Amino acid sequence: MKDQLLYQALMGKAYTELFDGLTSTAEKHFESSIKKANKLKDPALLIWTQLCYAECLYNYREMTKALPVYLNAIRHIENISPGEMIFPASSFKRIGYYMGTIGDNAEAIIYLRKALQHTRGNTSEFAEILDNIGQYYFASNDYKNAEKYFVQASVTAKIIKDDIRYAKTLGNIGRIREKQGNFKEAVQLLEKDIAISEKLGTDQNTMFAYTVLAKVFLKDQQWKKAESAADKAEAIAQTKPYYQNNELEIIKLKLDIYSKQNRTGEELAARRKMKVLEDTLKLTDGALPLIHANLMAQKAKYQLQMQKVDEDLQKESLIAKTAVVIAVLVAFLLTFNFFHSKRKERKRQQIYDAKIKEHELEKNRYEENLLQAQKTLHAQIEYLKTKNYHIKQLTAEIEEIKNSASSHIEEESGRLHEILDSHLMTEENWQMFRREFQKEYPDFYQTLKTEFPEITNANLRIILLQKMGFSSTEISALLGITQDAVKKSRQRLKRKLGDKYDQLFSIVFSES
Question: Using an 8 Å Cβ cutoff, are 58 and 97 in contact?
């Protein structure tokens, strides 16, 4: 059975590497290996199989899913000595990386130091662990200890000629220089990192270094260089679906660059792109699930500590046993409620997205029909009536969603409001309508211009639409103004025209 167990775990890893992602087949292999290890009751094998699976989940950003697998491995590690473990250095290292990723930097450092104790010096793995301990000190704002470990890692990497690790350490020291305000040295170190990383084809490190470099240039107000570095980082981020968190960070950085230069057009485009990515990441392991995973990890560690106390006391107290059962039940109910809420939220989002898609398709369809139809006044009127119908429909839907559990989706994205705004009469729509109106009613139009010069362009829109049979309600909807605004426009015009006002509207309502 041991041979089968090892085969299943290795097959799981092979499938993830082959398809560059965690497939259902790979997951079946991992789950099968863990079940066999449980049957054998071999804690060393169980830890190894669990960490193989957890590492793949971690590598492909399935952080929430990885949490219980790591916690199970940790629980078993506490019951055996490092000497009994399979590859203790690698095991401690994997746990350390995960804890750091979910934000528990102190726990990450503890596990990585354990890994260091079981790793041979002057090796690539030794340099890697030193470098990552430095990163978690950096994340904790302890720059003194961070630099100490980065320098040790850099020296080790240079001795053993590990160019990739050496490049990373240069970039990490550059990050410290940036925090210290020494932008010149930070840029030099990061550019060395990039030169080596690009030469060796390490895309992820190149992307990370360009992102940090863009931040340094932004702080130093070198806008063009900041944008160039951000563009290069973004180009790499778009090559892999699991780089979407990195892509989101880069887009936010570019948004900051555009904002500093008052580049409104690019800023708007970046905001739209950012919104799309945030929506996508909400359905995966984006920033919010990472925060949730961290909270769950803290809670689970507390439960493990309580469990250890209970085991030391040999669980002699019935009250303690009852408390454990209640705690587990509460945890289960909380977890069930969370995932149930998440499923409901995803369903609401899907319904909302379907509505948006339907409205966009319908809008494209009737605009295409207008382009294909003969450009006549009749076609223009039909086009505007269709617009009015959709404005009315969208207004009702917005009101309905405002009073539903999905109200926050529209508040955050505003996509229904955007589509509603796009249905309003644009300047282009107005010019086309006016042109066709002049062709159909040349005498009427000329009379307005010559006999009533007081009429403004805003008045003219209302008068021509009224002439074509549009009601005040329809006119206000098309122009994006209130019915009261339409009424006041007429009142102002009446004051301007005086006695000529009645003459004007007798012409408007005449059949010619």
Answer: yes
In this structure, is the dihedral angle defined by the CA atoms of residues 184, 186, 187 and 192, taken in order, positive or negative? positive
Nearest by Cα to 328 from 350, 349, 306: 306
Distance between alpha carbon 360 and the CA centroid of its chain, in Å?
A: 23
- Write the CA distances from 245 to 73, 171, 237, 387, 447, integer angstroms: 27, 20, 9, 39, 62
Q: Cβ of 62: how many Cβ atoms within 10 Å?
A: 19
At 42 the three-state DSSP class reads coil
Rounded Cα distance between 445 and 109, Å, is 80
pLDDT digits (tens, 9 = 90+) for 403-421: 887 777 777 777 777 777 7
CA distances from 103 to 99, 100, 143 (A): 6, 5, 17
Instruction: Give, as one character, the DSSP assignment of residue 122.
Output: S
Please give the helix or strand (H or E) that residue 204 lies within, else none. Answer: helix 203-219
**CB of 483 closer than 8 Å to CB of 441:** no
* pLDDT single digits (tens) 308-337: 655 665 556 667 666 777 767 776 677 667
C-alpha to C-alpha distance for 60 and 285, rounded to whole angstroms: 10
Q: Tokens 């996508």 sit at which residue?
A: 280
The DSSP symbol for 480 reads: T
Cα–Cα distance between 66 and 71 in angstroms, integer?
Answer: 9
Q: pLDDT tens for residues 138-192? A: 999 999 999 999 999 999 999 999 999 999 999 999 999 999 999 999 999 999 9
Sequence-distant (6+) residues with CB within 8 A of 56 are: 12, 13, 16, 22, 26, 30
SS3 string, 146-166, reads HHHHHHHHHHHHHHCCCHHHH
How far CA 333 is from CA of 68, 83, 294, 299, in Å, comes to: 16, 38, 19, 14
Cα–Cα distance between 223 and 236 in angstroms, integer? 20
Say how far apart CA 38 and CA 73 lie, in whole Å: 12
For residue 241, what is the DSSP state? G
CA-closest candidate to residue 429, choices 508, 363, 367: 367
CA dist., res. 413 & res. 24, Å (int): 33
DSSP summary character for residue 262: T
- Alpha helices of 41-182 — where are they, by DSSP H? 43-59, 63-77, 88-101, 105-117, 124-139, 143-159, 163-179
> CA–CA separation, 22 vs 395, rounded Å?
43
Does residue 242 sit in helix, strand or coil? helix
For residue 207, give the nearest of 254, 246, 154, 255 by alpha carbon.
Answer: 246
Q: What is the pTM of this model?
A: 0.51
